[in-house]
Design goal:
Blueprint lengths: L1 H35 L20 H11 L10 H17 L9 E4 L2 E4 L8 H22 L3 H32 L4 H7 L3 E2 L3 E2 L2 H4 L1 H14 L11 H4 L9 H26 L10 H6 L1 H29 L11 H20 L8 H31 L7 H33 L1
């Protein structure tokens, strides 16, 4: 029974992490695009007149799409047309099952690994499940009975075939180095140090493989500069042109779920996953009390800094709008002051006197926090790249995939195999 409950808890945690980041990423994408294009961005939706810098907009978008009229083309294939968005969304939230988000959680002397399914063929699972997403896009493109959606589906298929090979070649380099297909083994292997000071991360061992992998992930998620399956200026909106209401919302959310899973894969394979550089698990447990104090003091300092910034804004924008927006800086300052007060209150609990059981839980929290921080950074990188680089032409996309990335991937694999063989024979 305990195993069932722990497994359900792990599934719920990862599901909430992914689905919780979706509205945050939508808001960050809109605000980031507005910042790059020198405009204000979303600031109209409000609750009781409070707009919170556009944070209400993702909620308004979801409600609008859920309750909007579902308009469908008359010549569609009804079953496949309805199945496609659910298939894309299911694949998007299934891929995370083998990605470890922490080392283990110790409860009552039992250790529970922080991964939903610790498969021996975890990497093959990711590649196989991620490939199923192509079927959803192809079905959506064909079943809608529209030439633009059909072109979008064909583009998505060709693009995914072209870049999945390079992705597989990049991953094979890591498989040779760490000698395992299990993601938990690969992440655990990155907790060591090279030459006594350099983290043994995948990006250090396989820099070319990292570039090939992250480029392939961008292509697999159909994000700019690889968004040719949608290509608004060429094929209107591609495979989801004929979708509306909740079905369109599923495609929309699936794209952001893919971003989160892609960011998690990049973190796990090339940036140590939950590993914190120079702080292995025994060191985290040994110095948990000191680290907790440092963390709480940092929270207090940052919270007070933001509170001061909001209070200065209160003085600067006093009566500027003449409505509820004038109270937003006061609300922000209050939230940061409450956060600082809670952190100060936690110091009264004497965290430096934490026992062994508490130190183990604290180490787990630090590692999970490190993993989530890396995922957030790479999810932000998706947004920054989209609004910085222009879209490829289709011939450029194919040339990059087959004439540049594929030869580089093969060369990287051969060189890695030779080095691994030479190092292995020298032992």
């Amino acid at each position: 029974m305990d195993i069932v409950l722990i497994s359900l808890a792990k599934i719920v945690f990862m599901f909430l992490l992914i689905m919780g980041m979706v509205p945050a990423l939508i808001w960050a994408e809109r605000k980031g695009a507005a910042y790059i294009q020198d405009r204000t961005g979303p600031n109209r939706a409000s609750i009781g007149g409070v707009r919170l810098a556009g944070l209400v907009h993702p909620i308004a978008d979801v409600l609008k799409l859920v309750f909007k009229e579902d308009i469908a083309p008359t010549g569609r294939h009804r079953a496949l047309y309805n199945l496609a968005p659910w298939l894309v969304m299911t694949v998007a939230v299934s891929t995370y099952a083998v990605i470890p988000f922490g080392d283990y959680l110790e409860i009552g002397g039992k250790r529970f690994p922080l991964v939903v399914a610790d498969l021996q063929v975890g990497l093959l699972y990711v590649l196989a499940v991620a490939s199923l997403g192509t079927y959803g896009i192809v079905l959506a493109g064909w079943a809608a009975n529209n030439k633009f959606t059909f072109l979008g589906g064909i583009r998505a298929t060709a693009q995914m075939i072209s870049y999945e090979i390079s992705m597989g070649l990049a991953i094979m380099g890591l498989m040779l180095i760490f000698g395992s297909l299990r993601l938990t083994d690969i992440v655990a292997g990155q907790g060591e140090l090279l030459f006594g000071f350099l983290p043994r991360w995948g990006v250090v061992l396989q820099p070319l493989g990292f570039i090939l992998f992250i480029t392939s992930v961008y292509a697999e998620t159909n994000r700019n500069p690889f968004d040719l399956p949608e290509g608004e200026s060429e094929i209107v909106a591609g495979y989801h042109l004929e979708y509306s209401s909740l079905k369109f919302a599923l495609f929309f959310m699936a794209e952001y779920c893919h971003m989160v899973v892609g960011a998690a894969m990049i973190s796990a394979l090339y940036f140590g996953g939950y590993q914190i550089p120079w702080l292995p698990r025994p060191a985290l447990e040994q110095h948990a009390g000191v680290l907790l104090v440092v963390m709480l003091l940092a929270i207090i300092a940052v919270s007070l800094l933001f509170a001061v910034l909001f209070l200065r804004r209160v003085q600067r924008e006093k009566g500027k709008f003449g409505d509820a927006r004038d109270r937003e800086p006061v609300l922000g300052a209050g939230l940061w002051l409450v956060t600082a007060a809670l952190a100060a209150g936690a110091l009264l609990l004497r965290p430096w006197e934490i026992g062994p059981a508490g130190a183990s839980v604290a180490a787990t929290v630090f590692q999970v926090g490190a993993f989530v921080s890396k995922v957030v950074f790479f999810a932000w990188l998706f947004i920054w790249v989209r609004w910085t680089l222009p879209r490829f032409r289709y011939d450029q996309l194919m040339r990059l995939g087959w004439k540049v990335m594929l030869p580089l991937g093969l060369a990287n694999l051969v060189v890695t195999a030779l080095v691994v063989a030479a190092v292995g024979s020298g032992k």
